[in-house]
Design a protein that fits this description.
Length: 311
């Protein structure tokens, strides 16, 4: 039996499987199995009212989990799935409170990673409908972008037969764009590498800009946080870790953690750089926020949430 098939069967029997995606690694469970989903929450140490994203193998499975799917959401799925985009849709009766955190909506995503797609397809072929998976980190901590990082985060909280699949480093590096599709037009709940202009182009409508009342756990303060103190846009001092675009020089005595030359690379290496700081027991990390829109907005969002609030 291939490892993916073993993993799909383990999911179906109520076990947990951490798996790679193009954004970050996820911690998966059968989205229809209440006990299995409960284990995600206890393994992560995550409060039970935070909804999970259900990962599906293909667009056919949208109809199992969601109802009244607007045309613009279908257009987005057509354009950007498999890919780093989560659609929040009105839930069907199949999406129970234990996976939606009691909300009337459900989050769906088809990830663009070969191992994830093989796993989801094998799970579907065994009769499964979807894999609920948050990022595979302890609650509030930095999302893992390698299988080693998953082991470091969750190894001691998983059970013996639970699995961690290795698919190399995640190429996008930050979590999917979350789009609320329960209204007349789309609204971004969490920025990511599918950008506002990409969404407007395909959905043929202007984004709703106002604040949503929907809960998004990444919207809490102090998410994605390393142990080190992260400060933004300050002058780094000797002994500090430093993350900034590649054209910015490293002051003397400062420990350079990342110097990406593009925004894509910035997103790709960001979480690994924060993890490296903790491994090297660096106490303070300075990050310079990249300017611009598109992906830069998502990077600044994560930096701001990971940064240490001083008030
Ligand atoms: O890229 C990603 O999205 C990764 C990979 C593993 O797919 N997953 C991820 O999951 O980031 P998580 O649980 O760490 O973050 C998912 C976010 C949470 O903030 C949650 O509140 C929001 O999605 N979410 C899920 N379902 C929702 C719903 N029905 N309504 C509003 N927000 C929802
Ligand atoms: Mg997360």
């Amino acid at each position: 039996m291939t490892q993916v098939l073993v993993a799909a069967k383990h999911l179906l029997s109520g076990g947990l499987v951490a798996f790679p995606t193009e954004t970050v690694y996820g911690l998966g469970a059968d989205a229809e199995n209440e006990n299995a989903v409960a284990r995600i929450y206890s393994t992560k140490g995550r409060p039970a009212d935070h909804p999970l994203i259900i990962h599906i193998a293909d667009k056919e499975q949208i109809a199992f989990w969601a109802i009244e799917v607007p045309d613009y959401a279908h257009a987005l799925a057509e354009a950007y799935w498999p890919g780093p985009m989560t659609l929040i849709l009105k839930r069907s009766e199949s999406a129970k409170d234990f996976v939606t955190g009691g909300q009337d909506s459900v989050g769906l995503r088809i990830p663009n990673h070969q191992i994830a797609l093989e796993l989801l397809m094998a799970f579907k072929n065994l009769g499964g409908q979807g894999v609920a998976a948050p990022s595979a980190n302890r609650f509030g901590k930095v999302s893992p972008t390698t299988s080693e990082a998953v082991r470091e985060e969750l190894g001691s909280f998983l059970q013996n037969d639970d699995l961690i699949l290795d698919g190399g480093p995640s190429m996008v590096g930050i979590e999917s764009t979350i789009i609320d599709c329960t209204g007349l037009a789309p609204r971004i709940l969490r920025p990511g590498s599918i950008t506002a202009s990409m969404i407007e182009q395909v959905s043929n409508s202007k984004l709703i800009e106002s604040q949503s009342t929907i809960r998004v756990s990444g919207a809490l303060e102090n998410h994605y946080a390393p142990n080190a103190m992260l400060v933004l846009d300050e002058q780094p001092l000797a002994g500090d870790g430093f993350i900034a675009m590649g054209n910015i020089e490293t002051p003397e005595g400062v420990i350079r953690l990342a110097s990406p030359d593009t925004l894509e690379l910035f997103a790709q290496v960001l979480y690994d750089a924060l993890r490296k700081a903790d491994q090297q027991q660096i106490r303070r990390v300075v990050a310079w926020q990249p300017p611009g829109d598109g992906l830069a907005i998502a990077i600044r969002d994560r930096l701001q949430k990971a940064s240490t609030k001083t008030n």
